[in-house]
Design a protein that fits this description.
There is one protein chain. By secondary structure, this protein is an alpha+beta fold. Helix content is about 30%, strand content about 20%. It has 4 helices and 10 strands. The strands form 2 sheets. Strands 1, 2, 3, 4, 5, 6, 7 and 8 form an 8-stranded antiparallel β-sheet that branches. The protein has a two-stranded antiparallel sheet with strand order 9-10. A hairpin with a 3-residue loop joins strand 3 (about 135-140) and strand 4 (about 145).
Length: about 250
């Protein structure tokens, strides 16, 4: 009886140890997967096409007649320059999204220009928005804000970038035009200012973050009409007769 109890205790202990080891290994594996963001910007599928051999000129033996050449089947053998396979970034460019009524925004050459009615007080709320994102301000007046270097983190990147921004304002009647420009961008020792897509991604990203902060409650809350429609739909569903079984309605 004592031996059986001892064996059962040892068996349970071994099971617990194995389960603990498996849990730790699984956790490490999942943590490694969670930090790898390549899947968000890579093409999925087989890459054997990259190993295709180079076309060679056709060798025609003497005395063999061949049809006349036709441009319909001509293959241009130009060399491709650029990223291929897993190196190709498939993420679309970021687009500025204004969240305030009667406002518009557009991106051009490293800057987002945004026009908005003065009544929304967007300019006065930008410093607080930058502070929430831990972006330090080195200088500021009524029409200009300049930031210090700060790390910008994206969920689809493994390494943060360091960036600085310049934000300027111009007044026109009852509107203000705000321009957000990126003045430096680097990832580690690599200067990214010569990469238009990266510049656009980080300046538009900051603009959209600010727009999210200053957005009115009307774009954050479901409109009452939509709520009423959902309620009416739920009431209609609840009033439907139950499914008939053997020809008899089940109430």
């Amino acid at each position: 009886m004592l031996n059986n109890t001892l064996n059962r205790t040892l068996w349970q202990s071994n099971v617990i140890k194995k389960a603990a080891v498996l849990t730790v290994v699984t956790s490490l594996f999942l943590a490694g997967c969670g930090s790898d963001q390549h899947f968000k910007r890579e093409v999925e599928g087989n890459e054997d096409y990259l190993k295709s051999p180079t076309l060679k000129p056709l060798i025609i033996p003497k005395g063999v007649k061949v049809p006349a050449e036709s441009g319909d089947f001509y293959v241009i053998t130009t060399e491709f320059q650029g990223d291929l396979g897993k190196k190709l970034d498939i993420r679309p460019p970021s687009l500025p999204i204004p969240t305030i009524q009667d406002a518009f925004a557009f991106y051009n050459s490293g800057s987002v220009t945004f026009n908005v009615p003065l009544s929304n007080n967007v300019w006065g709320r930008i410093p607080n928005s930058l502070s929430k994102k831990n972006i330090p301000i080195v200088s500021r007046d009524n029409n200009t804000i300049k930031t210090d270097k700060t790390f910008m983190v994206r969920a689809d990147e493994e390494q943060a970038v360091q960036a600085t921004y310049s934000i300027k304002r111009q007044l026109l009647d009852n509107t203000e035009t705000i321009t957000i420009s990126i003045t430096s961008l680097a990832r580690g020792m690599d200067d990214l200012m010569s990469q238009p897509i990266e510049v656009q991604r980080y300046v538009v990203g900051l603009f959209n973050d600010i727009m999210d902060d200053v957005a009115p409650d009307s774009v954050r809350v479901v409109p009452p009409k939509a709520q009423d429609n959902d309620t009416e739909k739920d009431n209609a569903e609840s009033k439907k007769p139950a499914t008939a079984v053997n020809g008899t309605s089940q109430e």
